[in-house]
Specification:
Strand order of the largest sheet: 3-2-1-4-5-7-6
Structural class: alpha/beta
Order of helices and strands: HHEHEHEEHEHHEHHHHE
Radius of gyration: 18 Å
Strand content: 15-25%
Distance between the termini: 38 Å
Number of strands: 7
Bound molecules: S-adenosyl-L-homocysteine
Number of helices: 11
Shape: globular
């Protein structure tokens, strides 16, 4: 990292999601995470692939009906609602975007689960919950935004019950990256850090989690970026974006996403980490 690399603050990330939630909803639909194509030859839509990704995470969380789950960085709530409906669990989702809290709670009401799933404006760096409040937690594409991964992991561990699981899914650095490439990528998605899989495992262990499983899903998720760039150039999506944002912004985003794809190739992978708080 160089001096020119500006690490986004919590306020930057909050402003980013207040501004970008509609952008992602236009290009990606309900969830703000990559798609998972179970079979690389299959050509299911990005939205269908996003649901497959959520289902993979649900399968790794191993929860029982009636348990409580913390969703760290919940977006507009689709993954938490899907989890609750499939597994019969209660979910508390947290985000630092007021707009997302409102959208996610409205979604829970619309989908008939306002008593099982609720969303709160809370910074994951300081969780206001008592020790052992949750049976499990997950963080789907959110921790790379946070200022200190170790602190977030310690906070999550504190609020998990002994033996509780944590499932994390996010992009990781796999190839040597230049500072310039890192700058483009980090600025494009408001990241504060991406680390290697080995560093991730060490960070989890240093926070006293045992690492149960590490799954490399890079090959199953990589179509997401191409699909995003394809979507952003579709005339009907551009038209819709122009009802929400001005022309300069839409032009800038087209460039940013093309640049992100260029910096990403062969340098970034995507992993799922399944960890457990010792019993
Ligand atoms: N997991 C969701 C959203 C992913 S987008 C989904 O898969 O659809 C990243 C999310 O992380 C956003 O909701 C953002 O507000 C949240 N986030 C980023 N930094 C955070 C922090 N410090 N505390 C809580 N949430 C945070």
């Amino acid at each position: 990292m160089t001096e020119q690399q500006r690490i986004p603050t919590i306020e930057d990330i909050a402003a980013y999601y207040d501004q970008m939630t509609d952008f992602y909803a236009t290009l990606w639909g309900e969830s703000i995470h990559v798609g998972y194509w179970p079979d690389s030859a299959s050509d299911i839509s990005l939205e269908a692939a996003q649901d497959c990704y959520t289902d993979l995470m649900i399968s790794r969380l191993s929860v029982q009906p009636g348990q409580r789950v913390l969703d760290v960085g919940c977006g507009t709530g689709e993954p938490a609602i899907r989890l609750s409906q499939q597994m019969g669990v209660e979910v508390v989702g947290i985000t630092i975007s007021h707009l997302q809290v409102a959208r996610a709670n409205a979604r829970a009401t619309r989908r008939g689960v306002p008593n099982q799933v609720r969303f709160e404006f809370i910074n994951a760096m300081h969780l206001p919950y008592s020790p052992a409040t949750f049976d499990a937690a997950w963080a789907l594409e959110s921790i790379f935004h946070m200022p200190d991964r170790s602190q977030v992991l310690r906070e999550i561990k504190r609020v998990l019950r002994p033996g509780g699981r944590l499932v994390i899914a996010e992009a990781v650095e796999i190839g040597p990256m230049t500072d310039a490439e890192r700058r483009v990528l980090w600025a494009g998605v408001q990241a504060t850090s991406y680390i290697t899989p080995a560093a991730y495992i060490q960070t989890l262990q240093a926070a006293e989690f045992s690492v149960q499983e590490v799954i490399d899903i890079s090959a199953h998720t990589h179509k997401t970026l191409a699909k995003t760039v394809e979507a952003i150039h579709q005339p009907e999506r551009t038209e819709r974006l122009l009802t929400l944002y001005d022309q300069d912004f839409v032009t800038l985003m087209k460039q940013v996403w093309t640049d992100v794809v260029d910096s990403y190739q062969g340098k970034m992978g995507y992993m799922v980490f399944v960890a457990q708080k010792p019993a």
